[in-house]
Design goal:
- The structure is a single chain.
- The chain has one domain.
- The protein starts with a helix and ends in an 11-residue tail after the last helix.
- The protein contains three helices and no strands.
- The protein is mainly α and 60 residues long.
């Protein structure tokens, strides 16, 4: 099965760019995420981290 997929993929011209594009998207997402984490305000992080502990009374 893998040989069939590999041979089929090799026959498509220009397909070698897609793994590179996905790597760039993956890498840039985590770079932006790290930048957001390090530049976010401490007050915001504390507020968001306490949300699960807040008591809410919702009736379903």
């Amino acid at each position: 099965m893998l040989k069939f997929v590999k041979n089929h993929m090799e026959s498509i011209t220009g397909i070698e760019i897609y793994p590179l594009i996905s790597l760039v998207i993956f890498f840039s997402f985590f770079i932006v995420l790290f930048w957001w984490v390090f530049t976010s305000k401490k007050e915001y992080i504390e507020k968001v981290s306490n949300i699960p502990f807040e008591s809410t009374t919702t009736k379903i």
